[in-house]
Amino acid sequence: MTQTREAWGSRFGFVLAAAGSAVGLGNIWKFPYIAGENGGAAFIFIYLICIAIIGFPVLIGEILIGRTTQKNPVGAFAALTHSKLWVSIGFMGVIAGFLILSFYSVIGGWTIGYVVETIRGSLSNFNNPEEAGALFGELVGNVGWGLGFHTLFFGLVIGIVIRGVQGGIERSSKIMMPILLSILVILIIRGVTLEGASKGLAFLWVPDWSKITGQAVLIALGHAFFTLSLGMGAMLTYGSYMSKQDNVVSSAALIVFLDTAIAIMAGVAIFTAVFASGLDPAAGPGLIFQTLPAVFSTMPGGVYFSFLFFLLLAIAALTSAISLLEVVVAYFVDEKGWDRKGATLVFGGSIFLLGIPSALSFNLMADMKIFDKTFFDVVDFVASNVLLPFGGLMIAIFVGWIWSRTAVIAAAKEGAETLFESYPWFETLWFIFLKYVAPILIALVLLNSLGIV
After folding, report:
1. Is 204 within the bounds of a domain?
2. In the predicted model, is pLDDT for residue 135 greater than 50?
3. How far apart are CA 157 and CA 168, in angstroms?
4. Taking 70 as the threshold, does the pLDDT of residue 359 lie above it?
5. Among candidate residues 26, 34, 75, 83, the one with its CA nearest the CA of residue 55
6. CA-based angle 21:23:26, to the nearest 5?
7. Of 63, 80, 105, 255, which has fewest CB within 10 angstroms of its CB?
């Protein structure tokens, strides 16, 4: 007996879930610190252009593949082409989801751990970022702390995905995304009311073009691509649960808007507080776990804002993590006939186990190096620097060059007839970016991530 395939309960539910997938640690953690390192406003301007010419066109294409076939990444490519090469590209997306979630869960665990540490009062007495950094090193160096919160985080991910598309992913997204936005608004209000916050706003909104280098542009290109969860099958899988009556183009536009708005809002919340405290906005990856705890320590009512911030970070990590597990689960449900519960428990459990060496890379396995990298760094490098950009490049090439333009446009127009009729130039412009511009720029991102350019 063939199972009825799951579907979203509403287009709104899909947009929130897909935005949740896109809105992750990259928005709240990575975007602010790379903006800080590359001059603030000028970088944000370049980043927005990159989102428009790469992120948006490729996002539409990836969602379309899923919506058209109503299948997971492997099944989708198998349905659209008989080429084993393209089926293997779909399988690569499943592998990418598997690998990324294994180490992403470790960082997600840290965010929950910091919520707990805030409640315990551990983050309230720092005089400088160095003291906060020392505590961070102590916490991640503790085997029980790292593994314990990795386990808790992964348990939450499995608990949501096992309940299904509507009952788990969609319902949780409708709860978590409004909470995330509400927390951001509270943190922004607190930030802009601090003395000295105007320097942070100037940093974000007054461009310093002298900071823009070729490397900064490549970083903006890479982040514009990664921030939308492209190239790992998540958007394709989420798209496969859409109705043929849903407007893919406007849905993709909403996802891009929410993802970008939340990244910029996070920048406002963080940099107003950092500048008000007189600390370094270009603190790099340590901005979140070292600089900000020191900021909250000196802020009136800082313990409450610290709690809200790390709760925000945990929610962002969770909404992305469930999309990664769903890619793997969808493959085994669709292609291998597994039931959702069994697939979630078996393969969620497998990913959790693969994450253990990543958690131990900061303590027991810290000295075990592969090509001078820890296990965590190796998995991160393979997934983020190779599989994701290569997967995104292949999606752009497939939709732009392999899938016939007639079929692509026909699929895109389903549910979006009015848009294409009202703006006839959109079809041509979208296809130019998808077919020519995006592949070239994503190839540059891939070569840069491999250290070739």
Report:
1. yes
2. yes
3. 10
4. yes
5. 26
6. 115
7. 80
CA–CA separation, 117 and 227 (whole Å): 28
Residues ≥6 apart with Cβ < 8 Å to 269: 184, 187, 188, 190, 191, 309
C-beta of residue 73 within 8 angstroms of C-beta of residue 237: yes
Contact 327, 94 (CB under 8 A): yes
| Count of H-run helices and E-run strands, the chain | 24, 0
pTM across the whole model: 0.95
Question: What is the tens place of the pLDDT at every residue in 384-434?
Answer: 889 999 999 999 999 999 999 999 999 999 999 999 999 999 999 999 999
**Residue 1 reports pLDDT greater than 50:** no
- Convert 4-26 to b/e letters by CB count within 10 Å (16 or more is b): eebbbeebebbbbbbbbbbbbbb
For residue 99, the Cα-to-chain-centroid distance in whole angstroms is: 14
Helices 405-413 and 425-432, axial angle in degrees (round to 10)? 130
CATH number (domain holding residue 407): 1.20.1740.10
User: Residues near 252 by Cβ (< 8 Å), separated by ≥ 6?
Assistant: 56, 59, 60, 63
Residue 6 lies in a domain: no
Mean of the per-residue pLDDT values for the chain?
Answer: 92
Distance CA 94, CA 73 (A): 7
- Tell me if 59 is assigned to some domain: yes
Instruction: Please answer whether residues 399 and 408 qualify as being in contact, where contact means their C-beta atoms are separated by less than 8 angstroms.
Output: yes
Range of the structural domain that residue 355 is part of: 11-449
